Structures are given as structure tokens and as C-alpha cells.
Amino acid sequence: MEKRWTIRETPVEKARQLAGQIKIHPVLCNILAQRGVYDYEAAKAYFRPQLAGLHDPMLMKDMDKALTRLTGAFARREKILVFGDYDVDGTTAVALMFQFLQKIYIPQHIFYYVPHRYREGYGVSKQGIDFAKKNGIQLIVALDCGIKSASLVDYARSLNIDFIICDHHLPDKELPNAVAILNPKQTDCPYPYKELCGCGIGFKLISALAKRLEMPESSCYCYLDLVATAIAADIVPITGENRILAYYGIKQANENPSAGIKALMQLSGFQKGIIHVNTLVFVIAPRINAAGRMDDAKKAVQLFIEQDYEQALKLAELLHNDNDDRKEADSSITEQALSIIDNDPELTERYSTVVFQPGWHKGVVGIVASRLIEKYYRPTVVLTQSGEIVAGSARSVPGFNLYEAVHECREHLLGYGGHFAAAGMTMLPGQVASFSLRFEEAVRSRIEPEQRIPVINIDAELNIADIKTGFYNIICQMEPFGPDNLRPVFICRNLTDTGYSRVVKEQHIRFSLRQGDSTIGGIGFQMADKFPLLLQKAPVDIVFTIDENEWNGEKSLQIKVIDFRLSVN
Q1: Distance separating alpha carbons of residues 431 and 471, to the nearest angstrom
Q2: Could you give the residue range(s) of every CATH 2.40.50.460 domain in the chain?
Q3: Strand pairing of 540-551 and 490-497?
Q4: For a pLDDT cut of 70, what percent of the chain falls above it?
Q5: CATH code of the domain occupying 57-319
């Protein structure tokens, strides 16, 4: 599949100003300027994040109300329920809050609850509130959910149960009648940083509580590996406070991880090396999410609150097995879905994808939708049947508003929800065909031509001669990488094959390229079909990141090729 290359715009004057203040390669100054780093002080904060740079949690709207209600609960010896969503952000937030409250209050008076993905669905549930009532609980602290649960919060109030809501999703005009709502995305919340995840907001609450109880700030830092895991998994921007929290959370994960994190790393086979954001995203997060997708997310919370490493290993094994089941289901369903599309010329030519099989596992249809986009680059819906109801997940391509397209199909749906890039929906079986056609119409009428071509965003042009150890070391100092601070992507033009490039393992290309007097080696995964371009001996342009290769104990710089094509002179 051909890809569209776009080079990011650089604020040239700001980059030049920065280059005059910090003595690093001008190309790196260009990239920093693209990311809002314009002067020495901003560069210092960027390269050397400090916990002292975190904002005062009391700046958050309703924080004082939340603290007053919590300390009142302590004084009255009330029972408290920590409630959170079943994904990584929710379960880490529950573990963080549960452990901290147990540390400062009567342990037997603290409970936690994670709703079952299929029996209860997303967010605050009636079953959770009923659990609270049955156990004599008078206060629920909801994490990573609750902002959309006005009617359920009213139900809880009718049972004399109060809510403190810690959520980061966009609020509706009507807010729940909670004692306190901690959400920086409220229009009247003065908190300076708006992109915290649910676990991050939980961290701000325990930080404020520690301050109120005159505990040292450091008493909350032991949970930063959980916060970093949530930041990585929830795909929030790695800027501002998230960058600081992720930086120190990853540092802790490497130096002194919780028993749960350590156990998951061991079972995954990650025995050596350094944990990065990608490690949390691709190793830790799938195993946590698998608990909720395949069984019960409470296991993830149990793992994160477990102090004994041997017990943590046993719990981690359960999540690891869930993930193996998830991978098997994901692979099998993806294969089936691709076969459906490949064998139907009409589906192949559509602007959208809608596939349906009654027996597919509900927990992986969102993952399968993302897999299908890798081959058929277009808005995708994967549907399965649960009882009498068809349910599905949808994923979009960059720039296309998926929620609006689904909204246009509402006459065929029982319910739907989501946002720009992802959505979910339910319908009756008899509506599947009509929905598929209406969704295709909605996508076809809305999608722009460029949104049908995968895009590679390039940060800067670079010469091979500039790829040196010092240059690479500064890139490493730009970590942690993630949304709004991705690993730099470069373009290099007019390279020629040295004659030593070759296909390896029938799928990949081991590159050996020359530009002028400089040569560089690298790897391009799943690119074997493009190898004939190199055999033409004509100059090529490449898009790549810079990496380090270790072989027989020796380290050397290499490029990781994302795409390449013949040069246009």
C-alpha cells in the first residue's frame, strides 16, 4: 500500500533562536521547536523533567470539596468504595487509590469494585452501587469514569451514598450531582494541564490528601509506575505533567517496580534491557486489558495491590494466560474477517469495512477492527452477536470523524457511543445489512481523498553523515515518547544500495545504503515485496527512525526504515 509522506512545518525563527541558546544539531532544534520548545528554560524542563514541576493539586476545581468529604469520612469511620473502569487506566487508578487509602485509614473500611465488561458495561454501574449499599458503604470514589453517569449518581444519592468523581473524559452539559467532580476538562476548571488520564487525576487526589494530612510528598511517589502504565496505555499526550509523571514512573519501573509490574515483565520474557513507554504499551498493557476482555478485570487490580512477589507471579500468570487466549481469538477472527473481505469483490471496493459473524468474541472485535485497517485503510466496524443483540466496535483512520458517521446510522441502532477515532454500537440482527449500507454511504460522502491514503509524518530531513552517537544520545534524552512527542522520523534523499542489501527471513530487508562518502545499515520490516526497487540501482529516498543494534555484545547505530521509494530528481 502506497503511503503519503508529509514533512512537518517548522517555526524557523523559533528554531533558530533555540539553536543560539542550546548547542545541539540544528535539525534537533527544528524538531524541538515543532514540539513547543523555544528557549533554554523550556529545553531544560523538557530534557530534565522535575517532580517539582507538577502543579498544585489544589488548583483543580472541587479538590477542596473532595478532601473535606474524604477526611469527614475518616472522622465518621465510614466505609469507602473505590470504583474504576475495566481497562488499564481504570484498574491502575483503582489500585493506586485503594492502596493509598488503606495506608492512611482503616484497611477493613476500604473496598474496590471493577464492573464486568459484558455483564455491566462501561462506567458506573447499578450493580456497583447496589454492592456499595449491601456493604454499608457511604462514599464511592469513581476513577476514569462517572462524568457521564448523572442518573446513576442520583440513584446512589437516593440510597444515601455520595460520589467523588475523578474522570478525564469530556463532560456533558449536565453534570452528575456528585459531592466533587475532579476533571480538568470542565470549562470552569482552572487547573493548568488538561490532559491527565484517570489514574493521573487519582494521583493528584492522593497528592492533595497527603498534603492535607501533612504527609511527605514522596509518600505518593511509590505509585508512579502505575501512573506511567496508565499514561502509556491510554494514549494521552506525553507533554507537560504527563511527561513528568511518565518520566519518573518509567524510572521507577526500571529501578524499583511494584511486584505486579515485575511479575508481568518476567512472564512476558522481558528479562533484560530497559523499560520504555513502548514496553508498557506492548508488553504490560495488553496483559492487563486481557483480564477484562477475556474474563474479569478485578484480577488486574488484585495483581497491582499484591505486595508478595510469589503471589504476584501467580496472579500475573492468570493475566498472561488471558492474553494468550486474547491473541488466539484476535488472530483467528482477523484471519476470518480478512477472508470475508478478500472473497467479496463488493466489500473489497468499498470506502468502509463492516464485517459480522455471530460467534466472534466480543472482547477482541475492537482489536480486529484495527488489524483490518492495516490492510484495508478505511473506517472499519467489526460486529458479533451476544444473545439477541448484535454489538460491535469501530475504528477510524486519522482525520476522519468516525462518531459523526455512526451518528448518521442511528436509525438502525439500538445504542451507540464513542468519539472521533473509535466507537461502539448495538443493533438487532435484522439491521446489520441496512447499517452496513448506510455506514458506507456516510463514509463515502464524508471522507476526503487524502484520508484514504496512509500518511507518514516526517519531522525533518537528515543526511546520513549526521547520524552519530552524540546525535542519537540526544534523541534518547527526548524520551519518554508518545502522542505529541513521538520518536523523531527523518527523511534522507538520494541514497544508493552498496550491493549488500538483502532480503532476510523472506519478509524483511536488511539495508546497506550509501550517501556520498557515508554508509549506514538498517532494517525494514515486512518490506521484502519492495526489494526490486533496490535492484534497479537507482537512488532512493528513505523514511526512518534511528535505533541501536546490539550483536554479539557490540552496539552500533542503525536505521529502522519505515518506507522508501525511488528518488525524484
Answers
A1: 57
A2: 4-48+456-566
A3: antiparallel
A4: 99
A5: 3.90.1640.30
Long-range contacts of 521-529 (CB under 8 A, 24+ apart): 521/549, 521/556, 521/558, 521/559, 522/547, 522/558, 522/559, 522/560, 522/561, 523/549, 523/558, 523/559, 523/560, 523/561, 524/560, 524/561, 524/562, 524/564, 525/560, 527/561, 527/564, 528/503
Unique residue bearing C-alpha cell 518506507: 563
* Angle, helix 259-267 to helix 285-294, in steps of 10 degrees: 90
Please list the residue range(s) of the chain that carry CATH number 3.90.1640.30: 57-319
Query: 332: buried, middle or exposed (CB in 10 Å: 19+, 13-18, 0-12)?
Result: middle
Which overall architecture, per CATH, does domain 344-452 show?
Roll (3.10)
**pLDDT over threshold 90, residue 245:** yes
Quickly tell me which residue has 459473524 as its cell. 357
Q: What is the DSSP letter of 18?
A: H
Phi and psi torsions of 93, nearest 5°:
-65, -45
Q: What is the pLDDT of residues 192-204, one digit of tens each?
A: 999 999 999 999 9
- Report how far residue 20's alpha carbon sits from residue 489's, in angstroms, rounded to the nearest whole number: 23
Locate 267 and state its grid cell.
512472564
Question: Rounded CA gap, 226 and 237, in Å?
Answer: 17
CA 468 centroid distance within chain? 31
Query: What sections of 508-553 are H helices per DSSP?
Result: 531-535
- Please state, in angstroms and rounded to a whole number, the distance separating the CA atoms of residues 475 and 483: 16
Q: What is the rounded distance in angstroms from the CA atom of residue 318 to the CA atom of residue 297?
A: 11
The residue-averaged pLDDT of 33-55 equals 96
Sign of the four-CA dihedral 166, 486, 370, 315: negative
Q: Domain 4-48+456-566 belongs to what architecture?
A: Beta Barrel (2.40)
Cα–Cα dist 351/444, whole Å = 6
Q: Can you tell me whether residue 96 is helix, strand or coil? A: helix
Q: Answer whether the bond into residue 345 is a cis peptide, omega within 30°.
A: no
Q: Which of 420, 413, 410 is nearest to 391 (CA)?
A: 413
Q: In which residue ranges of the chain is CATH 3.10.310.30 found?
A: 344-452
* Residue 79 confidence (pLDDT): 98
pLDDT 10s digits, 484-542: 999 999 999 999 999 999 999 999 999 999 999 999 999 999 999 999 999 898 999 99
| Sign of the four-CA dihedral 121, 126, 131, 137 | positive
